[in-house]
């Protein structure tokens, strides 16, 4: 039973190690966008908007998500280093991960709360980014910047939602595909972790002029943001939704902001959400291990 409890956590850790050993996997970053769309598609497919119940704490979480992003950008920007500020911003502004409902299902929590939080944060944070990206990245407001942001956000967030809606209309039984595919989202996520880890190592090797201390600073900022998110989410959720709110605010859709950081800023800025991938997945691995071990003991 203990061995079974270790499977998922070890797969997450193995994905990072695999990417570190084989940095050439970083050349496959083009799949990140498509994998993300597929993961979102399977989240949207069985989703019945009418059945989702909004809780006031979810609006607080969304507001906290945006405010933490602004605060991280401002505080890191005090250093005078724009890349550092952008790295902090993209790590903090990231909305809830598409894999968060999957993790919460494994943890035996309230999945519908996570799904509602996922839809709310991704919709409102994406809307906020539509206005914030041109201003924060270029320092000015311009129609071209807004259009560029809108196109990228529609492709990443809107296209899988529209595709899922059309699929359901044409073939209603498709709503069951997500269940039948089982752990597909988790498998895709593990593959993405390999690619993201490989991309990070490839960036390290191709930029020998950047001090390792600089990477440690970005990693430290991402870790601090991660700790703030999970802890603050736990407090916002209260007794009823502490674990769910913590996961909603803490587990981030980093593939989304890695793409945005690479598009609107620089590969160095993408290191912010990339390091966040490590931290929140290490926490997820620990949570899964603790939960699976408890379940294994109960089954004995």
Fold blueprint:
Elements: H1 2-21, H2 30-44, H3 56-77, H4 82-93, H5 100-107, H6 111-138, H7 143-170, H8 177-180, H9 184-206, H10 212-250, H11 254-264, H12 271-299
Helix pairs in contact: 1-9, 1-12, 2-7, 2-9, 3-4, 3-6, 3-10, 4-10, 4-11, 4-12, 5-6, 6-7, 6-10, 10-12, 11-12
Task: Give keywords.
mainly alpha, 12 helices, 300 residues
Q: Could you characterize what this model shows?
A:
There is one protein chain. By secondary structure, the chain is an all-alpha fold. 80% of the residues lie in helices and 0% in strands. The chain is built from twelve helices and no strands. Helix 2 (30-44) packs across helix 7, helix 3 packs parallel to helix 6 (111-138) and helix 4 runs parallel beside helix 12 (271-299). The chain starts with a helix and ends with a helix. The model has no long low-confidence stretch (mean pLDDT 81).
Compose a concise summary of this entry.
The chain is mainly α. The protein is built from 12 helices and no strands.
Give a count of the beta strands, DSSP E runs of length 2 or more.
Answer: 0
Tell me the distance between the termini: 8 Å
Share in β-strands: under 5%
Structural class comes to mainly alpha
* Chain-averaged pLDDT: 81
**What string, H for helix and E for strand, traces the elements in order?**
HHHHHHHHHHHH
Shape: globular
């Amino acid at each position: 039973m203990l061995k079974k409890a270790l499977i998922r956590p070890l797969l997450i850790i193995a994905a990072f190690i695999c990417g570190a050993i084989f940095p050439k996997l970083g050349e496959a970053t083009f799949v990140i966008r498509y994998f993300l769309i597929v993961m979102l598609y399977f989240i949207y497919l069985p989703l019945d908007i009418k059945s989702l119940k909004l809780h006031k704490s979810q609006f607080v979480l969304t507001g906290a998500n945006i405010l933490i992003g602004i605060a991280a950008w401002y505080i890191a920007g005090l250093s005078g280093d724009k890349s550092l500020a952008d790295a902090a911003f993209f790590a903090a502004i990231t909305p809830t991960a598409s894999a968060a409902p999957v993790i919460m299902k494994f943890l035996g929590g309230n999945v519908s709360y996570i799904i509602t939080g996922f839809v709310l944060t991704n919709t409102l944070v994406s809307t906020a980014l539509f206005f914030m990206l041109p201003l924060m990245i270029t320092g000015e407001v311009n129609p071209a910047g807004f259009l560029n942001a809108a196109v990228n956000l529609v492709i990443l967030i809107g296209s899988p939602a529209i595709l899922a809606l059309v699929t359901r209309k044409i073939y209603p039984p498709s709503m069951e595909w997500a269940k039948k595919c089982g752990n597909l989202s988790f498998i895709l996520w593990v593959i993405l972790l390999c690619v993201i880890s490989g991309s990070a190592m490839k960036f390290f090797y191709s930029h020998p002029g950047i001090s390792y201390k600089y990477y440690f600073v970005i990693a430290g900022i991402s870790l601090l943001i991660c700790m703030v998110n999970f802890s603050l989410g736990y407090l916002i959720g209260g007794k009823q939704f502490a674990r769910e709110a913590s996961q909603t605010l803490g587990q981030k859709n980093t593939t989304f902001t890695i793409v945005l950081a690479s598009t609107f800023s620089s590969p160095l800025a993408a290191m912010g959400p990339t390091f966040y991938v490590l931290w929140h997945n290490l926490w997820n691995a620990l949570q899964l291990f603790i939960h699976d071990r408890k379940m294994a003991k109960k089954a004995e």
